[in-house]
Write a structure and sequence with these properties.
The structure is a single chain. By secondary structure, the chain is of the alpha/beta class. It folds into two domains: 256 residues, Aspartate Aminotransferase, domain 2, CATH 3.40.640; 126 residues, Aspartate Aminotransferase, domain 1. The strands form five sheets. The protein has a seven-stranded mixed β-sheet with strand order 2-10-9-6-5-3-4, with helices on both faces. Helix 4 links the parallel strand 3 and strand 4. Helix 3 crosses helix 7. Bound molecules: pyridoxal-5'-phosphate. Keywords: Aminotransferase, Pyridoxal phosphate, Transferase. This is UDP-4-keto-6-deoxy-N-acetylglucosamine 4-aminotransferase. Belongs to the DegT/DnrJ/EryC1 family. InterPro entries: DegT/StrS_aminotransferase, PseC, PyrdxlP-dep_Trfase, PyrdxlP-dep_Trfase_major, PyrdxlP-dep_Trfase_small.
Length: 387
């Protein structure tokens, strides 16, 4: 099976991890700060915090932004559940903004309409989580302008987008957001096995995220309430978690990040081949927003079902049966039973639901060979041509 995504581990990655195993520190050593420095270097953000998942990064970002009971978090319904769940972890409620049918990202026009209504009802969101689906950046300028006008905070869920660019800046620069989050799960662009990071340019948010990552404990005398009792002294000044990344993971991350440009460039070459060789099939190929460079975590096509004599499910099953490990990203979050029990229902976000009826993620990973890709193209062409 050719998977839809997978990691690339080279000897240098293995060596980096083995070196850590032989060193003094398996956790809380020099590799995590080195990885954070490489993330700041790659993005231009002033602060970066490596954690054990993007889910944890989203959680500490929400906490640092003060999300709590009585607050509302908005995000796109077409995302992984974690982009919404982080609001629930903080005791806030969650709502969604429908997607733009061209970019599949949350639609800034729908956002503005919903904000106008929310202002009248006194139910403005505390935070909007903008998800760069497939690596395609959201319209951050528009979202940022609305955040200034309506007074909400912005988190970029850039789990799909490391290595991409928005206008002239790397994703993660946080020019139009308060915090940007990355995921380093093995299907994503760069991996640390499990892992994530939260980046910001705001010192106050940075100080909070560093506390929430590790039990709310500080060793910084400036932050303490009491005078230190001695060299052993630390203080818990807030309630935090153990969301730390290990040294093994961070060393893998440092080694992988060195190839970030190469990884994303290889994805773009594969995408170009898909655009060229799939142009005549009854599908919609991904649209790219001008002046952006996608991280290209996913390559999503939409089936033109009225031109195909098969259902979405039949096409999906036949691709899988023929060794093509396609997937669907994503089941709209508001259709998940947990969210339905909160009152969301079918019909709430029509663009997201329509997207879900015909979308398929084709294999896209930097180590995919052209031979493998040609096999994907061959099988897809066959499946779509035959009755
Ligand atoms: C993968 C993903 C996450 C969660 O990442 P983890 O590192 O597995 O916690 C969050 N948001 C989006 C959009 C993702 O794709």
């Amino acid at each position: 099976m050719i998977p839809y995504g997978r990691q690339e581990i080279k000897q240098q990655d293995i060596d980096a991890v083995v070196d850590v195993l032989k060193s003094d520190f398996l956790t809380q050593g020099p590799q995590v700060p080195a990885f954070e420095a490489s993330l700041m270097g790659a993005t231009g953000a002033k602060f970066a915090f490596a954690v054990n998942s993007a889910t944890s990064a989203l959680h500490i970002a929400c906490l640092a932004l003060g999300v709590g009971k009585g607050d509302v978090l908005w995000t796109s319904p077409v995302t992984f559940v974690a982009s919404a769940n982080c609001g629930l972890y903080c005791g806030a409620s969650v709502d969604f903004i429908d997607i733009d049918p061209a970019t599949y990202n949350l639609c800034p026009i729908a956002l503005e309409v919903k904000l106008k209504l929310a202002k009248l009802n006194g139910s403005l969101p505390k935070v909007v989580v903008a998800v760069h689906l497939c690596g395609q950046p959201c319209d951050m300028k528009a979202i940022h302008a609305l955040s200034v006008e309506y007074g909400f905070k912005v988190i970029e869920d850039a789990s799909h987008a490391i290595g991409g660019r928005y206008l002239d800046k790397p994703i993660g620069a946080c020019d139009y957001s308060d915090v940007t989050v990355f995921s380093f799960h093995p299907v994503k662009i760069v991996t640390t096995a499990e892992g994530g990071a939260a980046l910001t340019n705001d010192k106050a948010l940075a100080d909070k995220m560093t506390l929430y990552r590790s039990h709310g404990i500080t060793r910084d005398e400036v932050l303490m309430e009491n005078l230190p009792h001695g060299g052993w002294y630390y203080e818990q000044i807030d309630l935090g978690f153990n969301y730390r990344m290990t040294e093994l993971q961070a060393a893998l991350g440092v080694s992988q990040i060195a190839r970030l440009g190469e990884f994303v460039a290889a994805r773009h070459q594969l995408a170009e081949r898909y655009y060229e060789k799939l142009a005549d099939l009854p599908i919609t190929l991904p649209y790219q927003l001008p002046n952006t460079y996608s991280g290209l975590h996913l390559f999503v096509i939409r089936l033109k079902l009225d031109e195909i004599s098969k259902t979405h499910r039949e096409v999906f099953d036949e691709l899988r049966e023929n060794g093509i490990g396609v997937n669907v990203h994503y089941i709209p979050v508001h259709l998940q039973p947990y969210y339905q029990h909160m009152g969301f229902k079918k019909g709430d976000f029509p663009n997201a639901e329509s997207y879900y009826t015909n979308v398929i993620s084709l294999p896209m990973f930097h180590a995919m060979t052209y031979e493998q890709q040609d096999e994907v193209i061959h099988v897809l062409t066959k499946v779509l041509a035959t009755k």
